[in-house]
Amino acid sequence: MASFPSFHTASFQGEITLDHVIPEAEAKFAALPADLHPELVAALARRGIERLYSHQAEAYEAVRKGRHLVVVTPTASGKTLCYNLPVLQRLLESPEKRALYLYPTKALAQDQLAELSALKHGLPIQLRVDTYDGDTPPGRRTAIREGGHVVMTNPDMLHTGLLPHHTKWRRLFSSLEFVVIDELHTYRGLFGSQVANVIRRLKRICAFYGSNPTFICASATIANPLELAKRLLEEENVELVDRSGAPRGERRLIFYNPPLVNRELGIRRSSMLEARRIAAPWIRSGVQTIVFCRSRLQVEVMLSYLRQDLAPRLDANQRVRGYRAGYLPLHRREIEAGLRNGEITCVVSTNALELGIDIGTLQTAVLVGYPGTIASTWQQLGRAGRRSGSVGVFVASSSPLDQFIVRHPQYFLSTDPEEGLIDPDNLLLLAGHLQAGLFELPFEGQERLGRADVSELLQLFEEDGSATRSNGRWFWSRQAFPAEEVHLRRILADNVVIIDTSHPRPQVIGEMDQFTAPVLLHEEAVYLHEGAQFHVDRLDWDEKKAYVRPVEVDYYTDALASVTVRVLETFDGPEGDEVSRSHGELKITSLASMFKKIKFHTHENIGSGPIHLPEQTLHTTGYWITIDEGLWRSLGRETLEAGLQGMAHALRHVASLRLMCDPRDLGSVAEVRSVTTQLPTVTVYDVYPGGVGFSSRMFELHRALLDDASSLVRDCPCLAGCPSCVGPLHLVEGAKEACLRLLAAGDGSAARDSAARYVSC
Amino acid sequence: MHGRRRSVDGPEPVSYRERLTRLGATPGPRPQQSRSLPRGFEEVSTRFGMAMLRQDVIPLPPLEPYPGNVAYLDTETTGLSGGSGTYVFAAAVARPIDCGLRVAQVFLPQPGMEPAFLQALQEEMAPAETVATFNGGSFDLPVLRTRWVMARMPGELHGAAHVDLLTLVRALYRHRMESCTLRMVEERVLGYERDDPISSALVPDAYFDYLRNGSHDFLEAALEHNRLDVISLVHLHARLLLRLQGGEAGMDAADWLALGRHRFRRGARADGWRAFRNATSFASGDASATAGLLLSRRLTRRGSIAAADGLLGWLESSITDDMRVSIARARLAEWRRRDPSQALSIVEAALRRMPDQAPDLEHRRARLRRKLDSGRSGRRKGYLREVQLEAPIVDSPA
Asked: For residue B86, what are the contacts with CB-CB under 8 A and spacing of at least 6?
């Protein structure tokens, strides 16, 4: 057995619910392919590669046979060579060919540019490899369009920069041999559905120029990679390579549940403090460690803890670093490099490091709280473990969901990670991309967009003037540039810039999205950045600027926000008697009202203050259910509220399955008395501004959703409701029963029977 | 379920129309109207089908100076964003011929007839050796190139040379205008105010209105706008050529300065020199001083120090309030003639003339004084390089 970094269970008062050793896997090698170009063999040898892992060889063979491919292997198993090898081989054979690489973020493209540049070094032909994104200087763009052999970009740039201007990219599209889609698992839900439509448009353009590229996808472990790839690419001839030949060290996996400190309230010792006790000795002894926190705030707090623990060392601040989305790109690159060359011992991160940014091999990973999905839990644990003797520890928080997972480790080990689901035919997405496609190339009379029949939509466009029919073809006929009206990720655009005023010349140290800013950057907030504390002196909301200065205080601040739903317009409904359904346009407001000052270590509340900032508003579409008075009068307010909360939680989850989107694409709110309906109301809404059309679908699926929600709750093995059925927050007695009664009222037989059964036993 | 949304369970399939209407997206069906051609256009046959052409010859006295075999081109597009969904729906080509100016306009009655449109345009341009446009370098020509790719047509525009009149206007007239729009150029350079039937911003909508509703009024206006634009280009080019030859009456110092800079950039040194000299000879104003300074810099560079000094001296005596001239002259005296005491007296004279510029000159005077003091104290005593013997300034100004 390998020697693991010491973890002495005896020194922790909490409960170890899982101490599992995942056995080592030996490397399965394969010889370098016989047809591999000698120069490429030499280039690999210079990088120390004399043979391939079996999955790399399989991938190479599949691509050489002209098949589309999806490679699914664990973190750090040499996935990139699976696509770089066949691509370089082809370029060596015929240098006029081209390849397009898509990464979900600019940062990943940068990272992979360095990787491929190192590999191509010394090859006999001048291969031009470039990233092309919003940061590419205008002066280099023409050269990349004309001469780039491998162009690395992101779906957003492909969508607004390449496809609508495809005539300038004629050289690339007419010789396009490969399209590489890395991090396939990120293309799910709304983003995936959008990207699927971008790929439909990409294929149209390729067809116009007479090319027919092979798609090579790489993905982290998800349950349905092949299905996702087939759906995203709309191709049947896709080969799956999922048997990793990479060696894997023996790994120890530990679930740790901190001790109860308040039995009545079920409150446990802080997962932050426990995680700190676990990680600190490792860091002191130089074991490279990554700590994953759930929020930006936690990252900053954990940073200051761990630096204190290392404090006698002068370089504590250098050895322990933070890494999260708010940092500027250059800063992030520096941290990534420091991890690779060993100058940094510990990095504290949000899920930003979940993606395949190459930070080399870490030995231990500590997860503070459950990351939300099984897939991302494995991704985060996978950050440690290439060599033998790595340890991954999951430290549960008091939250019911964490408690559910930590108490049922077998559930975690046996369940397949979640599926990546998309719906490219969502009408509003389809309509947006059809307009963009129409701008790019006219549509033939019976042409489809991918598999979607769009003739009826084209007729609608003709009626509203967006399209003109001429000589049996459809042409775009508006002045607008339609791709710019479709945002693939729908992230709120105007960020708040954070300015440090302590320098003679004020410095921008980061930025934050508008929806989060009221909670973290309100005036008097202690904003933590890279472990340093900054006091927010002034927040200029109109200019979107927060002026901060460094301070050293022994507390941090935490803000509370309240959420309200208002119906702006009802498109359909209410329909139904006891339980009615409606859908329409909503205004969802979030108001940060006050903040608390919380002392480090003791976590006691040492003060509070009001927050005077405008409400953050989300205009979207939603579907809501109201409950008639006759049903709830007998329940009592508390039980009713618990039942509604349970219903909201269950409905949101089953709806995300039915709609083939990510649960995070939907939000839900339960209100005992809604301002609009004046009745107990459960609302499930689209979390993206303007909505993407999920609400009318939920309205149509009303009956099915109630059925599904009933079975979810009914079939859950728990006695009185648990995080996986009625939701994580509301373990009120009778919640499960109340929830089933409410769900049963809206539907006939199944749920009512089971509710009766449940109540009777 | 053809054209219908997938439906997992019971409810009736709902049509796209209904669903989009619910989302507030669509107006009702629009009656299709027949479209007739705009006034004066006739069908001409090309090997890609029918194209719409309108031709006209405007009697015009022979152009002086003669521009050569040029086709003037102006296009109207469905948008300014570029990209493959921006069409060229009208193009006007003007060519000087023996009896005047031939103006041809090609019109795209519907997007599906683009290949014939492009072919007709190409044929119209074919006889010319040069294409002249206004901002064609960054707009008209790239857009047309995209259209040729989109139509899968051979050729593009044949290999004619391109003259972008906007580039010339910017070089020669920018100092006279706040912006270099064609409208502004007409007003300030050609001296007429056009009674434009339609503003440029409305042109795309005029075409879309025609496509959707068959309505003519705005489209006729847009086509007339296109025709007037291309005629303006002919006059503008003639005017630019005249100025480039220096043959235009009433040019002031700034005009000559701009012309001189342009000629130097194009490598025409003798012309540039002449233009700078003419600008200098006005002997008043900033532009005149700037031209003189540029000349003296060139004289200095080629070693004609005395000539440069003579020119600057003359300039200083005629334009007494330009500090740049005095400083240039002082620097020449100090560094080229190695005569700090002369430099000091130049600076002191300038200070007397321009007391309000004192802070800028003061520093230089102080430094020169220090230098002279330390020089007197011994180190470089007696060192004064002989100046070249050369004739003073070649062209004495008028």
From this structure: B77, B78, B79, B80, B143, B146
Quote the tokens at residue B131. 């294409």
pLDDT digits 0-9 by tens, A616-633:
877 778 999 998 877 777
DSSP structural state of residue B86 = P
Q: CA-to-CA distance for B278 and A363, rounded, in angstroms?
A: 79
Tokens of A494: 């105007």
B62: its two tokens: 């022979």
Distance CA A459, CA A470 (A): 13
Answer left, alpha or beta for residue A223, where phi above 0 means left and psi between -120 and 50 means alpha.
alpha
B85 — contact with chain A (CB < 8 Å)? Answer: yes
Distances (CA, A) of A108 to A228, A343, A359, A624, B286: 21, 22, 12, 40, 55
List the single best residue of A447, A476, A699, A705 to mutate versus B (max B Cβ within 10 A).
A476
Per the CB < 8 A criterion, the answer to whether A664 and A694 are in contact is: no
Contact across the interface for B23 and A428, Cβ inside 8 Å = yes
Between CA A632 and CA B278 the distance in angstroms is: 97
Size of interface A-B (CB pairs under 8 A): 113
Closest residue in A to B28 (Cα–Cα)? A463
- Helix A54-64 to helix A79-93 angle (10° resolution) is 40
Q: Provide the shortest C-alpha distance from residue A238 to chain B (in Å).
A: 25
Judging by beta carbons within 10 Å of its beta carbon (0-12, 13-18, 19+), is residue A477 exposed, middle or buried? buried
B237 in Cβ contact with B70 (< 8 Å): yes
**How many Cβ atoms are within 10 Å of B152's Cβ, its own excluded?**
9
Q: Residue B302's CB: how many other CB atoms inside 10 A?
A: 9
**Pairwise CA distance, residues A242 & A220, whole Å:** 10
Q: Tell me the two tokens of residue A459.
A: 């007729």
Residue B285: burial class (beta carbons within 10 Å; 0-12, 13-18, 19+): middle
CA distances from A420 to A180, A221, A372, A424 (A): 18, 10, 14, 13
What tens digit of pLDDT does each residue of A739-753 get? 888 888 765 444 444
In angstroms, the CA A361 to CA A170 distance is: 41
Cα dihedral B5, B6, B7, B8, rounded to 10, equals -160
* Backbone phi and psi for residue B376, each to the nearest 5 degrees, phi listed first: -65, -35
Alpha carbon distance A6, A12 (integer Å): 13
Structure tokens at B265: 């950039």
Contacts with A, B 110-129, CB within 8 Å = 110-113
- A165: nearest CB among B30, B84, B112: B84
Q: Which residue has the tokens 């149509």?
A: A700
CA distance B183 to A348: 61
CA–centroid distance for B40 within its chain: 32
- Nearest residue to B136 via CA among B45, B255, B233, B210: B233
Determine whether the interchain pair B85/A425 forms a contact, defined as Cβ–Cβ distance below 8 Å. no
Residue with tokens 């049922």: A408
Are the CB atoms for B305 and B336 separated by under 8 Å?
yes
| Residue A317, H or E segment | helix A316-319
Residues of A in contact with B29 (CB under 8 A): 463
> Please, what are the averages of pLDDT over each run of 10 residues along chain A (761 residues)?
65 86 89 94 91 95 95 83 95 95 86 84 86 88 93 96 95 97 86 93 97 94 85 94 87 89 66 91 89 82 90 80 70 77 87 61 86 76 72 81 72 66 76 94 93 91 89 91 81 70 82 73 82 85 90 81 84 85 87 84 79 82 87 78 86 72 73 88 80 77 84 69 59 75 66 39 30
